[in-house]
Amino acid sequence: MIQSKLKQIFGYDTFRPLQEEIIQNVLNKQDSLVVMPTGSGKSLCYQLPALEFPGLTVVVSPLISLMEDQVMQLRAVGVTAVFLNSTLDYVGHDWVADQIRSGEAKLLYAAPETLVQPRTLALLAQCRVDCLTIDEAHCISEWGHDFRPEYRQLVDVRRRLPTAVCLAVTATATERVRQDIKTSLDISSAHEFVASFDRDNLLLAVEPKTDGLAQTIHFLQAHPDESGIIYCATRKQVDFLAGELARRGWPVLPYHAGLDDATRRTNQRQFINDDVPIMVATIAFGMGINKPNVRFVLHYDLPKNLESYYQQIGRAGRDGLPSDCLLLFSYSDVQTINYFINEQHPSQQQGARARLEAMLGFVETNVCRRRPLLNYFGEAYDQDNCETCDNCTTEAGDLVDLTIPAQKFLSCVKRTGELFGVNHIIDVLRGSQNQKVLERGHDRLSTYNIGLEFSKKEWQFLARQFVQQGLMVQDMEYGSLKLTPQAYAVFKGEPVRGTLPDKPQAVPSATDYANYDQALFQQLRQKRKALADAAGVPPYVIFSDRTLVEMATYFPQSRASFGTLYGVGEAKLTNFADDFLPVVQAYCAANGLAEVRKSAPTTVSASSSTPGGRTVEVLNLYNNGRTLPELCQQYNVKPSTILNHLWKAVQAGETLRQSNLLEHSSLSPAQQQQALAAFAEHGAEFLKPVHTALNETVDYEELHLLRLHFISQQTL
Ligand code: ADP
Ligand code: ZN
User: From the CA of 377, how far away is ligand 2's center (Å)?
Assistant: First the structure.
């Protein structure tokens, strides 16, 4: 029965892990403590029971913005929810009180300090409360990272509500904090539900930071029109990066504690409402952000520990769709963090250093990144290949003999006195004329200019391996490299084996998640934005991206099939089918598309893309003479998908046969020539500059096609 409510109200087909057990437990009035990562669906664990209980469900929440957001989302699915907090005036308060007394409201959200007020307690005494939910329950513990004294008083509230089952939920809780929560709320016999901390829709990758700005732009190119957060370590860095990106036409806003309140609020609102999709921020940003369609999180600087990293990437992909998390790593960031650790109280330094070490372990690992990450949170990860981290998706490659490059690198470290970091060593090896090299006379060393066979980036890749293999150690404070006894063995001829940096860093792209129709998706997004603006709510309150992706995948033609989509329950079917169905129908009519039956309750998911094999296959067929339309037909996919494969192949260094892709373009010959000229001028690596140069008159799908044509002509 609760299963049918899941679809009817919330529009979901299946429960996520643990949800059903927790809900049963709550319905049986057994106190429960739930520890589940961000985005795993904790809210449903009390929202669904709230609809079953005859009485009221009270939800304590520390953040006003989150409270309002949840109430808005519940109203959008037809559930009456209200909130009480310090922002309400008397009239507002009276209205809420009426809704509660009359039994109209099923859920009441309240800030802890509001809840413990006598008038709130008096109000609750007049009605039946069936469930008391404590959200962010770790705030009750002094051992947590977010202690709030008001939370301590909640145990009194709980005692006053004898008919209410108590449900404490949090996304972070060590064993000690868990015990603390139970004791402080007096629910010592509560059942504990601890979910895996693995968020398998997050694609994890780390890249050495060589040119942060260029890498950021490259990354953003791979995410056109997507919403995401770029985290920087300092306000200064935020201002710099946001400025540079804005100057190049990227839709970004800054966020940090140095901005005044009003600016921060406006910027946050613009981000949430999809008016400005990219936020460049310090860690001050993110608390209380419930935006489900954050498609990427880029760490421009190294986070100081895995807790921060995990919390920040946790803001991506709450809707369950693949989301891209990239960390740019440089050893100089380690020095900066060390500097701040040294400023801390001595009693805290050791712990902070250990946490930084663990962070580095994650960055430098060459096994699946989920291992060190989950390990850190006390969870063993036993799969060999997660398929969604850079280490697992880059084919291991055969180990090759690296003895010569190792000898070159290590002897350069030795000859420069074991005083320098990776980049200086590489400069010497590659014969750089920079001041630091010349001043120190390093251009006269025998290791000067003997390493031109590798690029700077490639040497960095190799150097990481030498560190990982224990041939040298890096001083965490100054970044300098020192040789270990093993290095001396290498000088004597001990072989070194490892991987060559020959393959491009295959960061999986989140936009690969399904072969959905991009053009239709854009139209649906516009529709959603218009409706959201008219109603004064963020777009995701209307529908999540995932629902739109399903519309652009299954092309529903009737209300019945519209109702089967992810996130479409009764209320949203009633309220929005008439807005979105015509868009889909008109698009299908114009493009000769038919409805695709949505099979079983598994929907578009991360697993629907299989790069690698398919890309090679498509490339080979294409180079053997198959045309674009023929390939579309053969694979039953849109041209954009085939173009994607071809582009990936090109990026991997493959050559395209010469052909006239222009015959598939819908532009006039004059426009085509203009676009090709723009590629000649701005280069073909990125689409955005060309898009801008053409005054945004040519859409990305066209540009994709033209770019490949352009490239195929280059290979004469
Ligand atoms: P948390 O509170 O754990 O961070 P939320 O409760 O906000 O996560 O849920 C994250 C997202 O997952 C929301 O968009 C929610 O609607 C969605 N969701 C929750 N349960 C399910 C489910 N069973 N199937 C599909 N989506 C779900
Ligand atoms: Zn992995």
Answer: 16
pLDDT at 530: 95
Is the pTM value of this prediction over 0.85?
no
For a pocket test of ligand 1, which of 2, 3, 6, 12 has the largest count of ligand atoms closer than 8 A to its C-beta?
12
In the reported structure, the alpha carbon of residue 362 is separated from the centroid of ligand 2 by a whole-number distance in angstroms of 11
pLDDT surpassing 90 at residue 128: yes
The residue among 47, 83, 82, 81 whose CA lies nearest residue 64 is 83
What are the angstrom distances between the C-alpha of 313 and each of 38, 231, 257, 268? 10, 10, 20, 18
pLDDT confidence bin for 503, thresholds 50/70/90: very low
pLDDT for 43: 96
Domain 613-713 adopts which CATH fold? Arc Repressor Mutant, subunit A (1.10.10)
Ligand 1: residue whose CA is nearest its atom 17 = 41
Q: Show the ligand 1 pocket: residues with CB < 6 angstroms.
A: 12, 15-16, 19, 36, 38-44, 292, 318-320, 544
pLDDT at residue 240, as a whole number: 95
Ligand 1 centroid–CA 19 distance in Å is 10
DSSP symbols for 231-298: E-SSHHHHHHHHHHHHHTT--EEEE-TTS-HHHHHHHHHHHHTTSS-EEEE-TTS-TT---TTEEEEE
For the domain spanning 202-395, the CATH number is 3.40.50.300
Give the C-alpha separation, 84 to 78, whole Å.
19
Query: What dihedral angle (degrees, nearest 10) is formed by the CA atoms of 23, 29, 30, 33?
Result: 50
Topology given in CATH for the domain delimited by 399-498: Arc Repressor Mutant, subunit A (1.10.10)
Distance (Å, whole) CA 51 – CA 103: 12
In CATH terms, is domain 515-591 a member of 1.10.150.80? yes
**Rounded CA gap, 92 and 88, in Å?**
6
Percent of the chain with pLDDT strictly greater than 70:
94
Taking CA atoms only, the protein residue closest to ligand 1 atom 10 is 39
Q: What confidence tens digit (pLDDT) does each residue in 308-342 have?
A: 899 899 999 988 889 999 999 988 888 888 888 88
Distance 452 CA to ligand 2 centre (A): 32
Residue with CA at minimum distance from ligand 1 atom 24 = 12
